[in-house]
Write a structure and sequence with these properties.
This protein has 288 residues and is of the alpha+beta class. It folds into two domains: 2-65, no CATH class; 78-278, Fumarylacetoacetase-like, C-terminal domain (Fumarylacetoacetate hydrolase, domain 2), CATH 3.90.850.10. Helix content is 19%, strand content 32%. The chain is built from seven helices and 19 strands. The radius of gyration is 18 Å and the shape is globular. Manganese (II) ion (MN) binds at residues 80, 135, 137, 166, 246, 248-249.
Amino acid sequence: MKIAIFNDNVLGVVKGNRVTDVSKNVGWDHADPNASFLRLMDQFDDLKEEIERETDKGISYSLDEVTFKSPVPSTRKIWAAPVNYRKHQEEMNKMFNNAPRTIEDIALFLKSPESLSGPSDPILLPFKDRRTDHEAELGYVVGKKAKNVMADEAKDYIFGYFALLDISIRGHEERTWRKSFDTFTPIGPWIVTADEIENPHNLEMKLWVNDEIRQDGNTKHLIYDCYKCFEVACNNMTLLPGDIIATGTPEGVGPIEPGDRVRIKIDQIGEFTVDVKLSSAMNSFVKS
Ligand code: MN
């Protein structure tokens, strides 16, 4: 099932090129989408049939007449994979003349939960003169509280998958800082529930800037797959429902500029396009 949030926090299910309002079937509170979303994930197995029935007869809209919001309304934490594809390691090595270590050496890093944004929201660049890159990634949302869950059981804890952009300023500051600005984690266009993604480790993933293709990868090349990332993220640490995991980017990362349009597309999930703008806010930290 493709679960979306659109317009004024309406809960929708996407089928073909239509999205159906299923808010009333799950007691969705438009004023509190976060609590509603957590309840939806918690009760999903019981609500699923009712939602499916409504999807075929409820009020629906064409996809191009609605505005999609982040399908996860808010999150407590975003765990992200650093170098998790060999070819990305190679390109970073060439680009910056150093040898970045992979996830096998440096595990995961946190992005600010406030960096989360939706598939219709612009990316706001905080600096005019700092190189800021796109990274196309497969992301997923945690459905159940988890601690010390091993990779072979992780599947049961993943609620669903989406496309994710890990926007990254290049430089020598901590990853967390360089990747945590507001709007630096757009996700969407909706959540595809885990039961519909038979194998998350064979999904083609592409990214364009304007009409130029920049990234063309496949999740089969992940060093740590989605489940191993999950294991690492909850090894003696608690994962909570609504937490997000970003699984890392394949090769082809490159800079984005104000005025660009970034399009990401993942097989079996979908695509979205976001505008790049310069933030109007002042910045006091402009080193390196
Ligand atoms: Mn990344």
